[in-house]
Each structure stands twice: as structure tokens, then as C-alpha cells.
Specification:
2 copies of one chain form a homodimer.
Chain A (H helix, E strand, L loop, with lengths): L1 H10 L1 E3 L3 E3 L7 E2 L1 H14 L7 E5 L3 H12 L3 E7 L8 E8 L4 E8 L8 E9 L3 H13 L2 E11 L4 H7 L4 E10 L6 E3 L5
Parallel strand pairs in A: 4-5, 4-8, 8-9, 9-10
Antiparallel strand pairs in A: 1-2, 5-7, 6-7, 10-11
Chain lengths: 195, 195
């Protein structure tokens, strides 16, 4: 997935505190041509998996998930950050810790849209500590849905999320894994992978 | 745009208080095939406009905007609901009233991604009172971007947003306009349009 690494090197900005800003192409402005390339790559890597639905979480996962879903020919369900107790719904819910905003979110998926018949591919833009991903896995587990795989755009390989998820036996395909970053020089080192 | 009307009739649920639930295909589960049809229709209707960017707002506009952007061959910028004062950014910002959540949001777009060279198509899932759309128009105006048109999936024609926006001279293409709904019978009446 060299093209994503190249794009990160070109347009990503490294900030103090292990912050990697990719808002010019990934999570504020969205380069849909790049997303299409990413989607085709996940389609190639998960070609053997019987995916019938893509699961993501609002907000920045939605665009990538939608373009991926177009390649897979399946619908998307996105988990919502609940702002209020919603008596109208019969939902699966879980708590997700956001370090960015220093608070917990309740995240929900309607029971109507995730169930025992589903074989989901989870898609998200970032994987760092893994909190959001753990939440999505918990929602899928509560729903009895099979998780066929996880596709991540950028994994921060120096945080624990990726290792934890892989140790649980999940097939996790991150298209770029950042091994280290240096805010002073702007240098980004990627993990060597075999594809 | 009969296929969207048919889908709303089939899968939309009318609730008391003029609530139309379309979460099975539009704003929780997303039917990407339907989105692709919608995108092609907007492409047809705005074929004469020099669109170089699609502008939307998180969260439920993002999926539709991404699929539309793939048809138009342009990037998306989505306005973000600001959770904190973000000194890191140089943003355009405005306040948007949410009746659903009974609060005001600050909504921002980075100055890096919207400017005087831009010709934007605004895309969103719903138009009712028009608050979100007014906010996006204000952001575009502050940025000096030209608004080439506005594409909405479902307009609530009995609320004032659509009329206000059209009276301002904007080219607004709503793919389904609900004229009235009846929660008791579930009946939905659509506005007759010429395409």
C-alpha cells in the first residue's frame, strides 16, 4: 500500500504528542480517488471473506466505509454517538473512551441493522489505542454478527491497539502502519510489510 | 426521482411530530446502491455546473457526499461540529441550531480546504427548517467559495427551509419532496415535480 504511505509522507503533518494530521485528504477534506484505491486494496485482501455489510463509526469513518462498500457491493451501518437516552430505539450500546476529547461516548447500533446473519467488515480511518475498534467489536459481538475482518487506513504501530486486536485473532489489514514519527524533523517511519 | 420516493414509501416510517424515519437506508444503515443512483441523478441535474468540491456536514451527510463525489470526480469537505475551542486551526465557523438535540452547535471548516477558487456543490440527507444548510451556505460565503448548487435527498416541503433557500436564488435539487405525512395511516404525499 505504498501510495497511502507516499501520500502521508507528502501531505501528513507530524505534531508534538504523536499527532499525525491528515485532514487534507482523510478526515476533513476527503480525497475520494484515494479512498477508491484503498477500497480496491481491501477488496483484494478480503476477497476470500463473505462480507455482507460494512460497519464503521461516525464521523470520519463514514466516507471511507461508503466508498469501500461501493467496491464490496454491500450496505454500511455506522455506529452513532448517542447524545441522549433514546427510548425510541432498541439498540446495542457500549462506552468508548475518546482521548482526543477526554470523555466517554455511548455508542449505539440499532438491533434492526446488525444481527446473527451478518458477516461484517469493520472499516475505520485510524487505529491507535484501539478504543473505538474495541467498541465496534463489542457491538458486533452483542449482535451475534461475525467479524470477517478489519480494514484500517492508518495504524499507529507504536500504540497498543493493533497488537491487542491481532492477539485476539482478528484479521486486521492496516494500509499504512506508522512505526515512529518525529515532530521536530517531520520524519515518518513506516512498518515494513509484505504487500 | 421516483425510485427514492418508492423507497421512502416502502421503508420510511412516519411518526408523530412530522418525524420521518429512514434509518434503514439513509442515515444509520446506508444503501450504497441507492446512494449511487442518487449521485448519478445529481450529476445529471448539475451537469452544466463547474463543481470542483462537494461540501457537507457531519455525520449523516458524509456517506451520500462521498458517493456523489465519486460520480463528480471531486473531493469532499465536511464541516465539523466543534467540541472544543481549537486553537490549532484557522477555521471558518458558524452556529447551527439543532432542533433534534435542542442545542446550538459551532460548526467549522478549515480555511485550508475552502476558498475563493472553489465551486461547491452542497450535499445533505435532509432539508427541513434549513438551519444546517444555512450554516453551510454561510461557511461557503465566508470562504468566498461559489455555491453551484445544493443537492438534498429528502426535503420536508411543509417546512420553510426549501422555500427560503430557493427565494435566495439557489439552485436546490431535492430528490424527494414530502408534501405531507400522516402518522396515523403512514401515508406520505410527495410534491409533483417535472423530472
Amino acid at each position: 500500500m505504498r501510495f497511502l504511505e507516499e501520500r502521508i509522507r507528502r501531505d501528513g503533518i507530524v505534531r508534538e504528542g504523536n499527532v499525525l494530521k491528515v485532514d487534507s485528504f482523510l478526515n476533513h477534506q476527503m480525497d475520494i480517488e484515494l479512498f477508491t484505491e484503498m477500497a480496491k486494496e481491501w477488496k483484494r485482501r478480503f476477497a476470500d471473506r463473505p462480507v455482507n455489510k460494512i460497519l464503521t463509526i461516525e464521523a470520519s469513518g463514514i466516507g471511507i466505509a461508503a466508498i469501500a462498500a461501493r467496491e464490496f457491493g454491500v450496505p454500511v451501518v455506522f455506529a452513532k454517538k448517542s447524545k441522549s437516552i433514546n427510548l425510541d430505539y432498541d439498540n446495542y450500546s457500549t462506552q468508548i473512551r475518546s482521548f482526543t476529547h477526554n470523555r466517554n461516548y455511548e455508542v449505539i447500533v440499532s438491533k434492526k441493522f446488525l444481527g446473527t446473519g451478518d458477516h461484517v467488515l469493520i472499516i475505520d480511518d485510524f487505529l491507535a489505542n484501539g478504543c473505538a475498534l474495541m467498541g465496534l467489536l463489542e457491538l458486533a459481538e452483542k449482535a451475534g454478527a461475525a467479524v470477517e475482518g478489519i480494514g484500517i487506513a492508518i495504524e499507529k504501530g507504536f500504540q497498543e491497539g493493533g497488537r491487542t486486536i491481532r492477539e485476539q485473532g482478528h484479521r486486521l489489514e492496516s494500509l499504512a502502519i506508522v512505526e515512529s514519527m518525529d515532530a521536530a524533523t517531520g520524519e515518518i517511519v513506516f512498518r515494513q510489510t509484505d504487500c
